[in-house]
Amino acid sequence: MPGKYQKLMEKDVLVIGGSSGIGYCVAEASLESGASVIISSSSANRVTKAVKRLQSSYPDGKVAGYVCDLSKPTVESDIENFIKQAGQVWFFAPLLVAKVGSRYLSAGPQASITLTTGVTADKPYEGWIVVTSFAAGLHGMARGLAVDLAPVRVNVVSPGAVKTELWGGMEEEERAAVFKAVEEKVLTKHVAGPEEVAESYLWLMKDSNVTGTVEFGLANVFGVTNTILSSNPNSLSATFPSLSIKPG
User: Fold this and answer.
1) What pTM, to 2 d.p., does this model score?
2) Which of 113, 114, 172, 220 has the most other CB atoms within 10 Å of its CB?
3) Cα 246 to chain center, whole Å?
4) What is the β-pairing status of strands 226-230 and 112-116?
5) Per-10-residue mean pLDDT for the chain, 248 residues long?
6) Do residues 141 and 115 make contact, with C-beta atoms less than 8 angstroms apart?
7) CA torsion sign, 12 to 17 to 18 to 24?
8) Domain ranges in the chain with CATH number 3.40.50.720
9) Which CATH architecture has domain 12-67?
């Protein structure tokens, strides 16, 4: 029987976008916490490589991977097929969550949804109106969902600048200059790695007393959106680009 602080032990965790960056580290941390993990990405090659890395690092862990591309117009049918593949772990993408999400989440505070947003919600950048509107909307969405889906918990992480593959398009010198500029501005004088930021998601999955909150990273200067859902065994944890849920 899991100890009282091993809250993810024997749980099922699904990470959409789990082949790299923060999502990959959430998968790692979940495995270390004793959960069974399924990762998904739009690229079969990235999924295969990520699963092999996880299996190599955690040979006793339960990990699998599937392809699911949420950018296609066939997203709903693709997700339905993905759910059938994933078996006992349920994944809710935006449209499907609105239809059937509340039927499958466990009805209790051990189940949770964690959105990911960015600082542009609070400190808009010129020319970022669409991203800013979406990021800010996630704050209200999470608070509204926390009320509508209670006792299921809903929170938001705003991680800020994180050293992930997201910056891979920059030259090394340019990337170093960006990180240096961030470090000079933030209180921690530090740009975190994804393995550090992953701890915020684990905390929000574990702490059944937290809902309707926004967890800000001190190095918060850049905005992205993902989602993590967590629940009891045979339910889920997941990360994916955006979320809309209605009970019913």
Assistant:
1) 0.72
2) 113
3) 19
4) antiparallel
5) 80 82 91 90 92 96 85 64 50 37 70 78 82 79 83 85 85 92 88 90 90 72 42 38 34
6) yes
7) negative
8) 12-67, 75-217
9) 3-Layer(aba) Sandwich (3.40)
Task: Give the type of residue at 40.
Answer: S
The token duo for 59 is 């040979």
Structure tokens at 165: 């593959």
Structure-block tokens of residue 127:
């020319």
Query: How many CA atoms lie within 13 Å of 121's alpha carbon, on the beta-carbon side?
Result: 24
Tokens of 137: 């909307």
Strand ranges, E, within 17-152: 36-41, 63-67, 112-116
Judge if the upstream peptide bond of residue 151 is cis by omega within 30 degrees of 0.
yes
Which tokens in the block code for residue 66?
A: 């599937």
Instruction: Tell me how far CA of residue 69 lies from CA of 16, 56, 88, 240, in angstroms.
Output: 10, 25, 20, 10
Q: What angle do CA 89, 8, 57 make, to 5 degrees?
A: 85
